[in-house]
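Final report, Chapter 2: Outcomes

The project's central promise was a pipeline that accepts a single protein chain and returns its three-dimensional structure in a standardized token representation, suitable for archiving and comparison. That pipeline is now operational. To close this chapter, we reproduce one record exactly as it appears in the project archive, with the input sequence first and the structure output second.
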Amino acid sequence: MMNWPTAFVIAVAICAGAFLYNKPSDAAFGGSDHHSMLLDKTSWVQFDGNSQRVCYYDSGYRPIFIKCASWKTE
């Protein structure tokens, strides 16, 4: 049987390892080229590098869905 200080050290080592190896994504630090521009209340354009697409709220359904066109590079 293990005493409580040893169990505590092992548990801390496991938790610390989970935090040390968990790398945050680039999106959290602004590493993405993805931007959006609002056209009106229900539609917007998304930009990702040289690609763009139009998205809109489709209010014909309940709940309201978001629909987007295919990515275009023009």
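Archive annotation: The mean pLDDT is 77.
This record, like all others produced under the grant, will remain available to the consortium after the project formally closes.
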